[in-house]
């Protein structure tokens, strides 16, 4: 076997708690399919027959094939991990290390893309790379996000990605947060690759092809806990670090390992490097760079490659804005303006535009739904007007409610004639505050129309607490 | 038959040229129908007729040249033409005619003896479809990779690939008409697009190898062979004999789809073909009672030995021979990047010979840069020119060392495109041309031109970016424009002075002898 797929579905979705407090992130409906369906579909289309899914117990119960609506016969091997404290993706990978026998393809459950996967894997194969990853151009989200004031700030920290002249070899990677005074690039990198392009508008799709020896390296070094945050930058840096003089016999290898303490990635990788491969490279008249006196790849054993998607669909659904955009894109991708789920009851004189309506929903007469996302089991009474909003599952929207750019939580009720607009954003930042804020139109007040109220109302429907007054 | 003879004789006597031709045609038709035997009869008849018609009946004598011919129509055409010549020269030149008759008789004899060899004499050309010869039932079958413009051959190939579960690679771009019988693929559309990613049908090492071939990462005859054998080693290591099957038969069948796949990625080279033949032979020679582990070990060691003997040790031997030909003060010209020639030069430098090198390079591959790098890194004095400057630089050159992709059975050298030009110009300047080639690259194919069997590389390689502008970017939109990116060409043996192989230094025309000796050994 060549590659094993590992799907990371244990993340909590900490950047969109409003949606994930009730529904787990892998099961969030996007275009009426659970979020985890998209990476699984990608793997299936390409020809994978088995996937290892790492997730929590709750999600595991829901991951039955009919729930997932998978067409093919892909075998899902679900591994549970305890979510105690912060278990990073690298820790999760270490957890399943026994099952991994070949090179591994690591995916995140929130990736929606139509990339031709062979482009990434071909880089990995052809250059015998230690790591190959996928990146895509960052899309600006233009739609107004419910619960946020105005345009989304560039609050996300930028990634600085340096690639060589061909655009495939990854030379440098750092997050803005790690760069205190400015960008520092080692001279050895500049000597070997005098022409480097640094790009900032890229989204890391969290799709990595890793060699088997990298997984073994992870097992030895338990202090690496996140693939994206620690392992990848380490590998990128390792390409240019001074190579250890590779000892020829095994005794020296063990001695040097003990001396170093930490197992050297190169030694692990190079033992596999064979005489014939070296001979082939020696006889081949190919070089990946020209102009200096070094051999192909500058003699380096660790190589990292990146495939940058210039066009095509690639979203990581880890924020609310991305979620909404993904829904929009999926319905556009299907070709329809809107997607209506199964077992929906939609009465006459309703207008549903550019929206997604989840399964088993009920929509009564004279309802206007525009630009919105309704999850499963939502009931919308007559005369409602829903615009630019996200209504989570099993919510009930009362008669004649007017909802604009709001986010209605799960199992909430909007009273009849309720009106909510969003202006301020205040809810998103602090978790406590989200749970503490009150949706004014709910039962406690009897005059939902008062303009003062509707102007200042908060968007989030509180989950458990209701603050009186 | 005697009656027939008599009637024909009478016919000849009584008719003039026009009728005579008709009679001759009848004769020829009759001759064809009755086969070989008539030849001798025809000859006897001819002699009798000549004795009878020794008077100045030039027409009859001209016609008689026709009679003795149960020859293939192509030669018949030749005869017709010669007859026409004769008839136009009405004034009797008896000696000339007699000579012509003698010649005709000799040709008839030769044709009678060489009938079996005629099918071999017909040039194995892809384009020319030899007129179906009733006397030659054996027509040589053309390899499919030079029949891309024949839809039947393409369909056959597609069926074979479908059976082996290998995807068909689609052709790309407009092909220049002279080369439309060859495959032309695009590097941007690799075969891996069409196979599942954790490849199950094809062994992962073979997929990787095919990708490296098609992207040019493994390039050069020796490198490709070594990589191929390495991949085969991996395949053999991972192989498990299915129940009720024998390793010696099943493994060969397993290798067939892999070879088809590699062929689709990039056409196999002659050296690879020989290596594959060797491996298949070794596999089928495994005794049936041999245990799987032992058999695998034996195969792996066979492959190791092959590489050691045919490539590594051969290189050392060739280098030892070649160094005798390098003297101090030499200026050596090399073309492109040949691993063997680089090895020879590096060895010679290590043995303290003083020489300098001129590296000639050509677009679009520009492989000379790599050769230049390796030689300069060693410490050799080098000059770098493009092939357009070769006639300018040749007066300074004392020897030319060329590498070869394959050596053909008729002594032609198949090498990177441009080699034949270098050899030609060197010949014009009387500079000795030495070709270095291991014996495992000798192949039994015969080729006299570079059209019939060649390889077309990606035409987009010819696009060049200068100052941010990509020239020829929209070449596909111009209907009359075709881009041709040839990979190989053949150099005739007249231009090559010596071939240095691991068996010694031989002239180019001794290649068939080596092949014969090799076959006897095996």
Automatic annotation (TrEMBL), chain A:
Where in or outside the cell? Cytoplasm, Cytosol
A cellular component annotation (GO) from this entry: eukaryotic translation initiation factor 2B complex
The entry's function note states: Acts as a component of the translation initiation factor 2B (eIF2B) complex, which catalyzes the exchange of GDP for GTP on the eukaryotic initiation factor 2 (eIF2) complex gamma subunit. Its guanine nucleotide exchange factor activity is repressed when bound to eIF2 complex phosphorylated on the alpha subunit, thereby limiting the amount of methionyl-initiator methionine tRNA available to the ribosome and consequently global translation is repressed.
Q: What protein name does the entry list? A: Translation initiation factor eIF2B subunit gamma
Top-level division of the source organism's lineage: Eukaryota
Pfam families per UniProt: LbH_EIF2B, NTP_transferase
* Assembly notes: Component of the translation initiation factor 2B (eIF2B) complex which is a heterodecamer of two sets of five different subunits: alpha, beta, gamma, delta and epsilon. Subunits alpha, beta and delta comprise a regulatory subcomplex and subunits epsilon and gamma comprise a catalytic subcomplex. Within the complex, the hexameric regulatory complex resides at the center, with the two heterodimeric catalytic subcomplexes bound on opposite sides.
Q: What is its main location?
A: cytoplasm
Keyword terms, alphabetized: Cytoplasm, Initiation factor, Protein biosynthesis
Q: Does the keyword Cytoplasm apply?
A: yes
Provide the Nucleotidyl transferase domain boundaries.
Answer: 5-132
Q: Which CDD domains match?
A: eIF-2B_gamma_N, LbH_eIF2B_gamma_C
Q: Name one GO biological process term.
A: cytoplasmic translational initiation
Domain EIF2B subunit epsilon/gamma LbH positions: 331-417
Q: According to its UniProt record, which protein family does this protein belong to?
A: Belongs to the eIF-2B gamma/epsilon subunits family.
GO molecular-function annotation terms?
Answer: guanyl-nucleotide exchange factor activity; translation initiation factor activity
Species this chain originates from: Denticeps clupeoides (denticle herring)
């Amino acid at each position: 076997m060549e590659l094993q797929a590992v799907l990371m579905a244990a993340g909590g979705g900490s950047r969109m708690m409003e949606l994930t407090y009730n529904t787990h992130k892998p099961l969030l409906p996007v275009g009426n399919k659970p979020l985890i369906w998209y990476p699984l579909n990608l793997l299936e289309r390409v020809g994978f027959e088995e996937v290892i899914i790492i997730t929590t117990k709750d999600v595991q119960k829901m991951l039955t094939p009919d729930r997932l609506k998978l067409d093919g016969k892909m075998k899902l091997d679900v591994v549970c991990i305890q979510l105690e404290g912060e278990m990073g993706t690298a820790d999760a990978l270490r957890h399943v290390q026994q099952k991994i026998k070949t090179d591994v393809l690591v995916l995140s459950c929130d990736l929606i893309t139509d990339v031709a996967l062979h482009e990434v894997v071909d880089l990995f194969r052809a250059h015998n790379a230690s790591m190959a990853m996928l990146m895509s151009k960052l899309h600006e989200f233009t739609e107004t996000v419910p619960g946020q004031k105005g345009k989304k700030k560039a609050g996300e920290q930028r990634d600085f990605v340096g690639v060589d002249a061909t655009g495939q070899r990854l030379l440098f990677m750092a997050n803005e947060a790690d760069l205190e005074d400015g960008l520092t690039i080692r001279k050895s990198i500049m000597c070997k690759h005098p022409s480097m392009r640094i790009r900032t508008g890229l989204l890391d799709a969290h799709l990595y092809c890793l060699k088997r020896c990298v997984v073994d390296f992870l097992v030895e070094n338990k202090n690496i806990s996140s693939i994206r945050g620690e392992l990848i930058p380490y590998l990128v840096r390792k390409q240019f670090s001074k190579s250890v003089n590779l000892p020829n016999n095994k005794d020296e290898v063990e001695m040097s390992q003990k001396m170093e303490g930490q197992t050297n990635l190169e030694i692990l990788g190079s033992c596999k490097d064979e005489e014939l491969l070296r001979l082939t490279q020696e006889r081949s008249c190919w070089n990946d760079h020209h102009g200096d006196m070094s051999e192909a790849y500058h003699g380096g054993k660790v190589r990292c490659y990146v495939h940058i998607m210039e066009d095509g669909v690639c979203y990581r659904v880890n924020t609310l804005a991305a979620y909404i955009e993904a829904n929009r894109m999926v319905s556009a991708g299907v070709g329809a303006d809107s997607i209506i789920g199964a077992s929906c009851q939609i009465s006459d004189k309703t207008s549903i535009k550019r929206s997604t309506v989840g399964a088993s929903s009920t929509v009564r007469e004279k309802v206007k739904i525009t630009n919105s996302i309704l999850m499963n089991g939502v009931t919308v009474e007559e005369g409602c007007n829903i615009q630019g909003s996200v209504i989570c599952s099993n919510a009930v929207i009362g008669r004649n409610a007017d909802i604009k750019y709001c986010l209605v939580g799960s199992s909430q009720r909007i009273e009849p004639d309720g009106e909510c607009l969003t202006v301020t954003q205040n809810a998103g930042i602090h978790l406590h505050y989200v749970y503490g804020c009150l949706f004014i139109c709910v039962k406690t007040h009897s005059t939902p129309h008062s303009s003062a109220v509707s102007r200042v109302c908060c968007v989030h429907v509180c989950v458990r607490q209701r603050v009186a007054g | 038959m005697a009656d027939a003879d008599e009637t024909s004789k009478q016919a000849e006597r009584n008719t003039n040229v026009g009728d005579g031709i008709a009679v001759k045609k009848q004769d020829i038709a009759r001759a064809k129908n009755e086969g070989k035997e008539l030849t001798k009869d025809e000859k006897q008849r001819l002699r009798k007729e000549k004795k009878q018609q020794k008077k100045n009946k030039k027409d009859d004598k001209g016609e008689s040249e026709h009679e003795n011919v149960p020859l293939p129509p192509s030669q018949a055409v030749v005869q017709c033409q010669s007859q026409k010549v004769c008839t136009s020269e009405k004034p009797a030149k008896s000696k000339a005619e007699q000579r012509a008759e003698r010649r005709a008789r000799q040709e008839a004899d030769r044709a009678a003896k060489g009938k079996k060899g005629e099918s071999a004499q017909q040039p194995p050309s892809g384009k020319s479809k030899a007129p179906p010869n009733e006397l030659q039932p054996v027509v040589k079958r053309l390899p499919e990779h030079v029949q891309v413009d024949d839809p039947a051959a393409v369909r056959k190939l597609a069926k074979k690939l479908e059976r082996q579960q290998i995807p068909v690679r689609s052709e790309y771009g407009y092909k220049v008409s002279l080369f439309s019988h060859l495959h032309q693929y695009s590097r941007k559309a690799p075969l891996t697009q069409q196979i599942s990613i954790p490849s199950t049908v094809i062994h992962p090492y073979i997929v990787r190898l095919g990708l490296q071939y098609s992207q040019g990462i493994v390039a050069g005859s020796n490198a490709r062979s070594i990589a191929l054998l390495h991949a085969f080693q991996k395949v053999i290591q991972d192989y498990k004999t299915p129940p009720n099957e024998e390793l010696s038969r099943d493994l060969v069948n397993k290798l067939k789809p892999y070879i088809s796949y590699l062929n689709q990625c990039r056409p196999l080279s002659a050296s690879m073909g020989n290596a594959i033949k060797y491996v298949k032979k070794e596999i089928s020679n495994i005794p049936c009672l041999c245990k799987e582990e032992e058999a695998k070990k034996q195969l792996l060691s066979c492959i190791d030995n092959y590489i050691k003997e045919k490539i590594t040790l051969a290189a050392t031997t060739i280098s030892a021979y070649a160094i005798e030909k390098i003297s101090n003060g030499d200026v050596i010209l090399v073309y492109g990047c040949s691993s063997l020639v680089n090895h020879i030069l590096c060895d010679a430098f290590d043995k303290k010979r003083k020489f300098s090198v001129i590296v000639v390079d050509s677009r679009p591959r520009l492989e000379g840069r790599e050769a230049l790098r390796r030689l300069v890194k060693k410490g050799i004095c080098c000059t770098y020119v493009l092939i357009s400057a070769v006639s300018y630089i040749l007066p300074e050159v004392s020897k030319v060392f060329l590498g070869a992709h394959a050596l053909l059975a008729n002594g032609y050298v198949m090498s990177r495109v441009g080699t034949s030009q270098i050899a030609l110009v060197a010949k014009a300047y009387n500079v000795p041309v030495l070709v270095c080639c291991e014996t495992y690259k000798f192949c039994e194919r015969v080729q006299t031109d570079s059209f019939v069997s060649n390889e077309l590389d990606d035409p987009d390689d010819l696009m060049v970016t200068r100052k941010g502008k990509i020239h020829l970017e929209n070449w596909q939109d111009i209907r009359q424009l075709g881009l041709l990116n040839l990979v190989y060409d053949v150099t005739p043996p007249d231009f090559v002075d010596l071939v240095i192989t691991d068996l010694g230094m031989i002239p180019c025309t001794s290649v068939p002898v080596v092949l014969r000796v090799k076959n006897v050994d095996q």
